[in-house]
Design brief:
The structure holds two protein chains of two kinds.
Chain A lengths: L5 E3 L3 H12 L4 E4 L7 H4 L7 H4 L3 H17 L3 E4 L3 E4 L5 E5 L5 E5 L3 E3 L3 E3 L12 E3 H10 L8 E5 L3 H11 L4 E6 L8 H8 L10 H7 L4 E3 L1 E7 L6 E6 L12 E4 L2 E5 L2 E3 L2 H5 L4 E3 L5 E3 L12 E3 L9 H18 L5 H29 L14 E3 L4 E2 H9 L5 H8 L12 H12 L16 E2 L11
Parallel strand pairs in A: 1-2, 1-7, 2-3, 7-20, 9-16, 10-11, 10-16, 11-12
Antiparallel strand pairs in A: 4-5, 5-6, 8-17, 13-14, 14-15, 18-19, 21-22
Chain B lengths: L2 E8 L3 H11 L6 E5 L6 H4 L3 E2 L1 H5 L4 H17 L16 H25 L10 E5 L2 H13 L7 E5 H7 L9 E5 L3 E2 L2 H14 L3 E4 L3 E7 L2 E7 L4 E9 L5 H9 L6 E12 L7 E3 L4 E4 L4 E5 L13 H14 L7 E12 L6 E3 L7 E5 L9 H13 L20 H8 L1
Parallel strand pairs in B: 1-2, 1-11, 2-8, 4-13, 11-18
Antiparallel strand pairs in B: 3-7, 4-6, 5-6, 9-10, 10-11, 12-15, 12-16, 13-14, 14-15, 17-18
Helix pairs in contact in B: 1-8, 1-11, 5-11
The chains are: A alpha/beta, B alpha/beta.
The structure holds flavin-adenine dinucleotide (2 copies).
Chain lengths: ~475, ~425
Amino acid sequence: MSPDPVIVGGGPAAISAAIELAQHGVRSTLLEEASRLGGVVYRGPLREGVELDYLGERYKDALHKLHAEFADIAHSVDVRLNHRVVGGQGEHSLQVLDPDERLQEVGFGQLLLGAGCHERSVPFPGWTIPGVIMLGGLQLQIKSGVVKPRGPTLIVGTGPLLMLVACQLHAAGVEVAGVYEACEFTRIAKESLALLNQPQLFLDGLSMLMYLKRHGVTVRYGWGVVQARGDGELSEVIVAPYSDTWQPDLSKAQPVMARTLAVGYGFIPRTQLTQQMGLDHAYNVDGYLAVKADTWQRSNQPHIHLAGDVTGMRGGEAAMLTGRIAALSILLQRGVLSEKQARAQRRVYLSRLNTIVRFRGAIDRYTQRGTRQIELPQADTVVCRCENVTRADIDLALSQGVQDMASLKMRTRVSMGDCQGRMCVGYCSDRLRESTGRQDVGWLRPRFPLEPVPFSAFTNACKDA
Amino acid sequence: MIKTYDVVIAGGGVIGASCAYHLSRRKDLKVAMIDCKRPGNASRASAGGLWAIGESVGLGCGVIFFRMMSAERKREAQGTAVIVDSSTPHILPECFFDFALQSNALYPGLHQEMIEKHGMDFKFERTGLKYVIYDDEDRLYAEHIVANIPHLSDEVRWLDQAALRESEPSVSHDALGALEFLCDHQVSPFRLTDAYTEGARQNGVDLYFNSNVTEVLRQGSKVVGVRTDNQGAFHCKTLINAAGAWAAELSVMATDLSIPVAPVKGQIVLTERMPKLLNGCLTTSDCYLAQKDNGEILIGSTTEDKGFDVSTTFPEIAGLVQGAMRCIPELKDVNLKRTWAGLRPGSPDELPILGPMAGVEGYLNACGHFRTGILTSAITGVMLDALVRDQPLPLDVTPFLADRFNLQPVGLKKVIGA
Ligand SMILES: Cc1cc2nc3c(=O)[nH]c(=O)nc-3n(C[C@H](O)[C@H](O)[C@H](O)COP(=O)(O)OP(=O)(O)OC[C@H]3O[C@@H](n4cnc5c(N)ncnc54)[C@H](O)[C@@H]3O)c2cc1C
Ligand SMILES: Cc1cc2nc3c(=O)[nH]c(=O)nc-3n(C[C@H](O)[C@H](O)[C@H](O)COP(=O)(O)OP(=O)(O)OC[C@H]3O[C@@H](n4cnc5c(N)ncnc54)[C@H](O)[C@@H]3O)c2cc1C
């Protein structure tokens, strides 16, 4: 028999897949880089109340159920926490950095990748000043309860998470300097408004919008960030009305005093591993690359499966369902389920998934990225933080006829740093698309290792062979 | 509309770009360079060593190659009395030394010229190349090298253990000494390619990126142009084949003859940025190490016959990393940032393939530069410029002509094979 299926990630997608497999008697190995299971949102110690309520009752229940179910089958999952997958060279093994900083090769018969997504960064003048942070990172800070952001805190971006974090911050005693949603009020999906208007336990029964209103927090729709200012630390943020393509109207720009600026303009799938493994990808509507999965959650390599946000941001419940479907496919491939059995069960999951996808679709439409934000950086604004490449460097390269990502990298050093372009590739490819008029300007294929690893990790690698 | 040029260059790696630059210096020719970066293109993958002597005597990129060859020969030689080992260093013929050394001598001037005229700095650095000696076998190898190049004795220096420690304090104290090649230096390979490219553009060369040459237009035995996948047809008086590891494919299109250029895969490892740890470039019997202008240390390189595959592979990477830690023990606390692989355009005798081919008009080769295309790009550009203009050459091109191989028409070969 081929080795156990291997699951990368420990979020809702991964956990659900492990459960489905175990319920059919199949053991799996689960690799998670964090020290706890749960994924980006549920990693925290599962305390009751505060943290989960805001996600909505349905989600909360689903989660409790998930953790309870996992506890039941935990004995048949080899959970390896603090194990970071840093490479997928070849089609049947992964390179993993273990907690002792040794590199191991982990072989697999089937693989499920559930690496989730990360936040999209947007360069604008001053975005590297201390005090400017990502919205999700801020949310994790509040949840940890250890550090509080310095107030007043301004929130800019798009999507329901903005209001949520604003309420959480305020409830935690932080002064909120305002919420600036890039989308105009009239274009926000009714599904999302319903969520924002729904009474919340953690807000003493108020809806998020009511709560913010009652506490005098400024909420502006169709506004966005232009610039952050400060000498060594943030002191002021310039905001302006955004058009539907997120072009700021600078004639109406205004300053807002703030010591923390939380920026949340959306998410992008974590495709570093799927790209390195050479799987098929396609550009999403937002211009970002996402890995392609079929209705069994298989990649173009049928034994490699994908679930959750890696294929596009669809939320926790969808992650659970796609994890389960991927597990069904693995069970089918291993001959544990018949085609008929697998299909019947998949039908159940798919019908629930379709409902969620419709709901997400509505949110996706109004939170869709406006590309004119690329005009924000000024000549001296740093675009690639790792290599200190400015907008002027990129402008020069484009004027010299550079036409694709790899050539831009060679000419300017963008993306040659530790993060391999995770932060700047979006801006750069937007600029290239604009200047060449072509849709496909190439993408950077992440190289082994996905994160820097110490040389000593190789000390005994491949020596036994 | 058909575009018309004096010269079309197919391939825009360091070789094609150098040809474009050198042809455009006088701004009297209409030149186009057509390039579609294929995965594994060598110039972007390279280490950027200008190791004129080092590579000519089989060190640097050559060292692992040599080990592979000698292991192969050892295997072949089993049962016979002949043993090929470190006492037979892998030394290239005289004509290659001349070619490499003449090219090497061009860089200081070219570096100035690129900065002053075109605002492009390819980071030429005088580093020297030290062959680090760990044991008697290494020493024997070094002694044989020195014995084979008496005419270059001014460029060679022995370092004993104390001298090595003084000049390279980070090198392992297990090392017994080193043999240094004083004229071997380094550049940033992709900056060199970009400098040629941008210089050419500023001199009026038309660059067609993301275009593949898909067909060569011919009238009888004369090449008259090319067709591309997305820029239509180009007419030209001369076509230069600078297609790197893919040059054989283009030569078949142009001449029906397949020149013997084949991809030789090389994997490379790069560290994070560091304060200066190495004063010069190093080569050992396991790998070479070069600290680049921005502080990263580049460690190369494997020599593999894997076709056009450009994946990186764990055992080979681990081998390079272990070889590097053996040489510079403090690397163990340093982070490895990146690995990649590139395809050297290899030829059977390790010499490039340059110039015209018998019986074909309007076509010139500029390919097969194997493991020294960065080093030899400058002289290649100079030679090709002179060949196009039918002017005297700085070096005899005869040893580099494709006609040195016994080339069979591709169609004919098929018949024979059938
Ligand atoms: C800041 C933020 C707030 C969100 N808020 C909400 C919300 O309110 N409601 C909602 O429905 N959804 C929310 N989401 C989305 C929701 O978290 C995701 O849709 C869901 O968690 C996706 O689950 P997943 O299993 O695909 O990925 P994740 O939960 O992201 O889990 C992926 C896991 O994989 C691990 N991993 C990744 N790469 C590697 C590697 N190379 N090696 C080892 N481990 C690796 C990560 O550490 C992570 O634990 C939010 C997301 C973010 C980022
Ligand atoms: C790991 C490694 C380390 C090296 N280290 C050194 C070193 O230290 N010093 C040194 O001197 N050399 C070194 N080399 C060798 C050197 O990099 C090569 O000899 C040199 O780059 C070859 O240049 P090229 O222009 O011929 O090939 P390439 O750079 O591969 O360029 C050829 C170009 O032509 C394009 N092309 C091919 N066919 C077509 C077509 N039909 N239409 C359009 N475009 C086409 C290709 O896509 C490619 O972009 C190293 C090589 C490797 C792989």
